Amino acid sequence: MILQTTFLFISGAEIAFILFIVVMVFGADKIPEIARGLGKGMRILKDATNDIKSEITKSAEKNGIDSGLTKEINEEIKRVKDNIDDITGSVKRKF
């Protein structure tokens, strides 16, 4: 038996059905308020993660931890990716 994972691979008809259910449950006048609330929540989450990243970076620099090492590793990974792209050429995998 072959099992297929279909996480977030939904068709247009399924999206339309979900939107129909959302309109029926919340009403057309509440949907913009819900979208604004979700947008504000996402923004707050993004700001919080950026604050945490900056605090970690400041703490690492303050304690003498070399953050340049991660930059070097990222550059090396980028070089390897570029080399792989050069080798594979126009052949790409499609998932």
Could you list some keywords that capture this structure?
single chain; mainly alpha; 95 residues
Describe this structure in words.
- With about 100 residues, the protein is mostly helical.
- It has one domain.
- Helix content is about 70%, strand content about 0%.
- It is built from three helices and no strands.
- It has helices spanning about 10-25, 30-60, 70-90.
- The longest helix is centred in the middle third of the chain and has 32 residues, at about 30-60.
- The two termini are about 20 Å apart.
Question: SS-based structural class?
Answer: mainly alpha
| Inertia-based shape | flat
Write down the oligomeric state. single chain
Could you give the count of β-strands? 0
Strand content: under 5%
Q: DSSP helix count?
A: 3
Q: What is the helix content?
A: over 70%
Mean pLDDT: 81
Summarize the helix and strand pattern as letters. HHH
Q: Rounded to an integer, what's the Rg over CA atoms?
A: 23 Å
